[in-house]
Amino acid sequence: MSVVELSGVSKTFQQGKTVALQGIDLAIEAGEFVSLIGPSGCGKSTLLRIIGDLIQPTTGSVTVNGKPAHRARLDRDYGIVFQHAVLYDWRTVAKNIALPLEMLGWSRARRAQRVKEMLELVELTGFEHHHPWQLSGGMQQRVSIARALSFSPALLLMDEPFGALDEMTRERLNMELLRLWEEIGSTVVFVTHSIAEAVFLSTRVVVMSPRPGRITEVVDVDLPQPRTAQLREDPRYFELVTAVREALARGGAEAVVEEELVSGTDG
Amino acid sequence: MQIAARRGGLLVVLLGVLWGLWEGWHWVGTRFHLHWPFPVNDTTMPHLHEIVRALFQPAQVNGPWLVRILVHDSLFTLKESAVGFAIGAVVGFAIAVVLSQSSFLERGIIPYVVASQTIPLLAIAPMVVVGLGTKGVTDWVAVAILAAYLTFFPVTINGLRGLQSADPRAVELMRSYAASRWRILWKLQVPASLPYLFSAFRIAAPLAIVGAIISEPAASIQGGLGGAIVNFNQYYSIEPQELWATNVVAALLGIGFFLVVVAAEKLVVRRPPEQTA
Amino acid sequence: MSGRIGRRALDWLPAVLVFAVGLAAWQWVFSPLAGRFLLPRPSTIATTLWHNFRLLFDAGWFTFKEALGGYVIGSALAIVVALLFARWRRVGDALMPYAVAANAVPIIAFAPITNAWFGVLNPHSKWAIAGVLCFLPVMVNTLRGLTSVRPEAIELMRSYAASELDIFRRVRIPAALPFVFTGLRVATVLSMIGAIVGDYFGGSTVALGVQIENSISLFDFPFGWAAIVVASGFGIAFYVAVSLAERVVLRGVPSTRE
User: Fold this and answer.
1) Residue B143 within a domain
2) Residues A113-121: contacts with CB within 8 Å, 24+ apart?
3) Are B33 and B147 members of one domain?
4) Which of A68, A88, A65 is nearest to A78 (CA)?
């Protein structure tokens, strides 16, 4: 049973005037790390939110953990991380991480224990009583990830979580994320517009075309696990990066051709 | 056009609801002899149609209709307020420009301008107007000066904030074009300050009107709405509709002046929409 | 350490200089020019204040209570309405322009009517004026705070299957608190104005407003200005008290005002 199954999913906005997604079919198995990559406006963030039942698809079905996406959300089957840490300023780091646990009705003792574990996991022990604005961007994102994983969801949805960070912090957090993924064993759906990041992190890269968003190609990343920093200099890594880049270009070119066919212009 | 029609329709519905609430409370109050929060009878809550009727009748025997008197009074008060508002706005903005150019002056003066927002400035209105009168200033001019004074504070604060709100990178860009101080001011900072200025105008316009209304009685000015209110207040127990009518006209004047500012803002300022949930 | 204090003092130097120069100019230039009716000297005002301190302080306290009653009622009502408008967004969006326009009405001009309703000597008549004046700033600011939450913060709560009530309780209300306090601070001044100026149209002789009006008709301007100083003192104290409450409640959350 796949963790996520999308069948014939499409999404239009403004009564059909804007087609964000079209004919999306995708199955994600347990333990995979799948990246969604595409140009701006290709609908990858929309697709992520459809999986999370934060947006409803116009057509098609979405199954998460064998249930309809709506049910999965109510059962809190996934954790989500956004591009901005979205921490609440009036709560300390510890209380921010504990938020989903509060909503799940965990006892205070159990919450405190889990918060301690999560802080160790993301290497932020000692920052329990700090407030979000006292932390750097990278640290805030680590808290955000700790919060998302605090209730051990089977699925982790991430919407360009490192997009607002500088390159060096981003590479470091990439390694940390992979370490967490190995330890916890969740399935990850990861939205990014960085080809390097997508190839480095994932087991599979889903390449999407510009609007209307379709899946151009799925690239299997057969790099060895666990990933190491040296892999960024491996020839196979570069081959895969090129493959993804060419798939993106192809998707873009196809979209241009299609638009011309539809509007009746040429060249 | 559609939006205007919908807004207009909503206004009519809203006024209808308010009218219904008024008459409803009046009916319940008189029926059950309510004394809380205040005793309800024809004097404390005259029927709305009575108020309208009073407008189209003479206020005194063989005199002009009440509505004519009130319109005349409104224009008098408006003259005082608008002249004062204009002067206060210009002076306030000029001072804001000066402050924006000198950090020393800014740090010296702004604390007091801001502190003025925490003291009940409006309360000095009658004193200032009467005081000016003792120096021989014509009555309506004194009120206009007061209105200017009330307008000046919010305009200076917001004007300064607006001038300083220009994106520092945009300023750097202008400097890279070797633009002079005046150029930067005129082309970048003044346009950036417009939204802030209009925020201040929205506050200052009704304030100028209120300032005028409360100063007129103290200065024994007969020609304006303030005088009319005090006048009809004396006859309240006999003819409550007249005071109510006066207040309705005063309300319309305040709203009208405010809407003029809002309309001007729509023409002059373009704001990007906010991104919030 | 002394370097830092020295620098802070330097920051305030221009303001102190301006204050000294301004006060001196008032005492020796403006007052003589304007005459003792338009602008009495600071020294005259100070001595009048000193001689009548008990009387003026009691009047200030009485007026403050008039303001406070209106402040509490108006602000409480405003917060409730803001919560309703935030929950039923379309109603709120539709009614907002009218609420804003209604605030341009010269509310203080209704003082004679509230006097007729509650009685000239009854503080409730001033509560009504002060309350209505406080209503809009508190309501607008509270509403802005309740609705200025980032979309992702709401999405996060939805990912936890949170109910609308949960979202309000855990996100919107805490996020709104800085904004609520902005409104509450503005309202302190407005309520004082409502009380004092409301009394200009008639009130108890104990009230500052009535005393100021009397001083005008008697041409005893130093007394009037001394009363204004007392009124300002109470106004500033009120504002500072609310600011302190804000510090305590928000405990260092960075203010997201304006």
Assistant:
1) yes
2) A114/A150, A114/A151, A115/A150, A118/A146, A118/A147, A118/A149, A118/A150, A119/A93, A119/A94, A119/A146, A121/A146, A121/A149, A121/A180, A121/A183
3) no
4) A65
| Per-residue pLDDT tens digits of chain A, which is 267 residues long | 788 999 999 999 888 788 889 889 999 999 999 999 998 888 899 999 999 999 999 999 999 999 999 999 999 999 999 988 899 988 899 999 999 999 888 999 999 999 999 999 888 999 999 999 899 988 999 999 999 999 989 899 999 999 888 888 888 899 989 988 988 888 999 999 899 999 999 999 999 998 888 898 999 999 888 888 888 889 999 999 999 999 998 887 766 666 666 555 444
- Which of C152, C160, C170 shows the shortest C-beta gap to A84? C152
Q: Is the ipTM of this complex over 0.90?
A: no
Task: Give the mutation candidate from B74, B106, B112, B124 for the C interface (greatest C CB count, under 10 A).
Answer: B124
What does the block give as tokens for B79? 């003259």
Nearest to A64 by CA among A182, A187, A205: A187
Q: How many other C-beta atoms can be found within 10 angstroms of the C-beta atom of residue C192?
A: 33
Separation in Å, CA of C60 to nearest CA in chain A: 37
Question: Does B92 lie in the same domain as B17?
Answer: no
What are the start-end ranges of the H helices in B135-239?
139-164, 168-176, 181-184, 190-218, 225-234
Q: What is the DSSP letter of B65?
A: B
- Look up the CATH architecture of domain A1-77+191-267: 3-Layer(aba) Sandwich (3.40)
**Interface residue C184 vs chain B (CB under 8 A):** no
Residue B276 is assigned to a structural domain of this protein? no
Q: What are the sequence ranges of the domains in chain A?
A: 1-77+191-267
Question: How many C-beta neighbours within 10 Å does residue C31 have?
Answer: 19
- Contacts of residue C159 in chain A, CB cutoff 8 Å? 52, 54, 73, 76, 78-80
**Dihedral angle computed from the Cα positions of residues A85, A88, A89 and A93, in that order, rounded to the nearest 10 degrees:** -80
